[in-house]
Structures are given as C-alpha cells and as structure tokens.
Amino acid sequence: MVVAALSASVPGCRQADGETAQEAAAAAAAPSQTAAGVRVVNVEVTAATPSEFADFVRATGEVEAINDVILSAEEGGVIVQILAVKGALVTKGDQLLKIDDAVLAAQVNEARAAATLAGEQYQRQRRVWEEQKIGSEIGLLQAKSAADGAAARLAALEARLARTVIRAPVDGVFDERAVEVGEMVMPGTRVGRVVGAQRLKVTAGIPERFAPDVRTGASARLAFDVFPGREFNGRVSFVGSSVDPQNRTFPVEVVMDNPGRVIKPNMVASVQVERARLSEVIVVSQDVVLRTESGYQVYVVVERDGAPRAEARPVQLGPSYDNRVVIREGLGLGDRVITAGQRQVDHGSRVRIVNSGGKGQ
Fold first, then answer.
1. Any residues with CB less than 8 A from the CB of 25 and at least 6 apart, and which?
2. What kind of fold does domain 3-49+289-358 have according to CATH?
3. For FRET with 223, which of 16, 129, 167, 309 sits at 20 to 30 Å CA-CA?
C-alpha cells in the first residue's frame, strides 16, 4: 500500500517533510534488523487512552482599552494647577487638574449665606404659626419655598465649584495632558485622557462558518509577536449578532488581564477562541497519521502468529489543534499506536517495541 505523510490539505494537519526527529533518532539508534530472513523494524508505541481535547478557532485581533476616557472641562476658567504628572497611575476620583475657582467660590459663599437666612426665616415663621397661629398658611408656604430655592441654588453652585477640580473618572493611566498652567479653557475643552490599562479587550473577526460554535464565556488564548513564546489567557465577553458582508466575519471581544501593563492598546494579537471541548476521546500526534489513497491511517502493534506485527488501521479524523488530532473512528482504548518508525513499516511487518510503551509484550 502506498502511504504518504499527512499533508497540509487536510483541515488542521501540517505537511511533514521527511522523517520526524523522533523517528530519525529511533532509526539511528536501533536500525531495522533481519532474523532468520525476516525483516524486523524497531518501533516505539503509545497506548491509546481517553483524554480531553480543546478545539480552537484562530483569528487576528486588535487590542483596545476597556476604559479609554477623554477628559473635558466642565467649567470655564484658567488652569491654575497640574495635580498629576502625565503617565501617572491614578485611581478613580484622584485630582488631575485645577481650574481657577475664585469667582465660583465667592458665589458659593453668597449663596450659602442666603440659604442660611432663608432657612432661619422659614423655621421661625413655622414655629410662630404652629405655636401661636400668627401669620397665614400661605405665608408659611412662601417662606418654605424661598428656603428650598436658596438651598437648591447653593447646591448647584457647590456642584459647579467641585467641577473646577478635574478628577480621574476611572482607574488607569493619566495618558495625555492637553493643557498647561495659565491656559484658558471653556466647558467642553479637551484637557486630557485616562486609559484603563489593567484590563483590556481584544476585538477580532471570526469566520461565519464558526458562528454556531463560538459563545460568550468561552476561553481564549492570545499571543503577541513582541512577546514570543508567551501566552495570555482571556475570555469571550461579547459575540456579535451580525456578519460583516465585506469579509464574512462576525465580531467577538475577548477580555484579558494585563499584568504589569505590558500590553498596549492598538497592538495586534493572535487570538485563539475555544469552539469545542471534548472529553473521553482518543487523541494522537498528527505525525503518526498517514495519508493513503482512500483516506488516512495509523499503524498499531498487534500480536499475530506469536509475534508483534504492524497493522494498518483506517481512521476518521476529528478536530485538530497544536499538532494533536482527535481520532473519531478506527482506534480503541488500549491500542498500541506506533509513534516512531511508522513510515518504515507496512501492514503485517514484524516489529520490535523499543520503548516502555511496549511494556507487557
């Protein structure tokens, strides 16, 4: 039978060029031998056991800050003080900038005095009305209305006074300061920016064929070219409900922690979103799967005529990820799968197991 290495044309499988390093090492250490005219091939085997398998779909995404807030002045005036340096870590409520408040502070003092007077007048008029029935009920209501109005004017001015201090709206980094001391600002003037960098989201487009599989709450893995070999974990927080007609993808958002703030907004990420998790399935290395004219096969070791021999098993493949593939049909639990030397054997070849996977042979 003619066999070839599993090619890249198979979904989830990679092209193998020549022997794997493991097979080459095994062949060099213990080459095939002949005993009484019978060729014997040294092989290594691994018993098929049930395991878990997670299947992922790959996409490319872009990092965004979950909280990226533009700061604007809410009151007009001159910037008189910078209370936080650009790049500083800030928490929600921290003071960042101060606008001159002299005029508003005077108005607050005036309104406070008026509110105090109106309140005293109302309380005295109320006591006289309740104890001595002097005055009129309408006069009492007018006094109460005046006191309430004065208190409301005071509260409004106090709120405006508080807005002369520009504070951090969220935890993050004071990433931009757009004004300097002495600069005049008006309500709505952009004065800075706070970026929340402890938690980020990565937005990616997933091909529409995976729409039934991707769900909110699914785990995700993220990698960045600037951090080779390092992997970050995240979780899908949003799955779009429509497909982009231009590229036939739907959006997902993955939320991730950012320890040390090493990931920056607008970085490009390689995203792998979990689409299925299987339990109690047989999983093998893609290197042991060989293509045939009619499909795919793996070699197992069986006892025949009192000797261990290679047996070709046609298999049906399931999902694959990270050089591992699920065998849906063709293998049973306990089958001894040839993991080194599989390209040196044919169906029925005599073999010698040279690793501990052949224990008990």
1. 340
2. 2.40.420
3. 16
- 153 contacts 161 by C-beta, under 8 angstroms: no
Write the pLDDT tens digit of every residue in 74-92.
999 999 999 999 999 999 9
Question: Among 260, 272, 264, which residue's Cα sits nearest to residue 220?
Answer: 272
For 165-203, write each residue's pLDDT tens digit. Answer: 999 999 999 999 999 999 999 999 999 999 988 889 999
Percent of the chain with pLDDT over 90: 47
Which residue type, as a one-letter code, is found at position 19? E
The rounded distance, in Å, linking the Cα atoms of 85 and 97 is 10
**Cα dist. 352→19, 47, 101, 116 in Å?**
19, 15, 90, 101
Q: What is the architecture of the domain spanning 101-162? A: Orthogonal Bundle (1.10)
- Per the model's pLDDT, the better-predicted residue between 342 and 153 turns out to be 153
Domain segments of the chain: what residues?
Answer: 3-49+289-358, 57-67+195-277, 101-162
DSSP H or E stretch at residue 241: none
C-alpha 292/C-alpha 342 separation (Å) is 13
pLDDT at residue 29 is higher than 50: no
> According to the CATH classification, is domain 57-67+195-277 in 2.40.30.170?
yes
pLDDT tens, residue by residue, 53-64: 888 889 999 999
CA distances from 280 to 49, 62, 190, 322 (A): 8, 35, 58, 18
Q: What is the DSSP string of 318-348?
A: EEEETTEEEEEES--TT-EEEEESGGG--TT
Report the C-alpha gap between 334 and 270 in whole angstroms: 37
Does the fold of domain 57-67+195-277 match that of domain 3-49+289-358?
A: no
C-alpha to C-alpha distance for 334 and 120, rounded to whole angstroms: 92
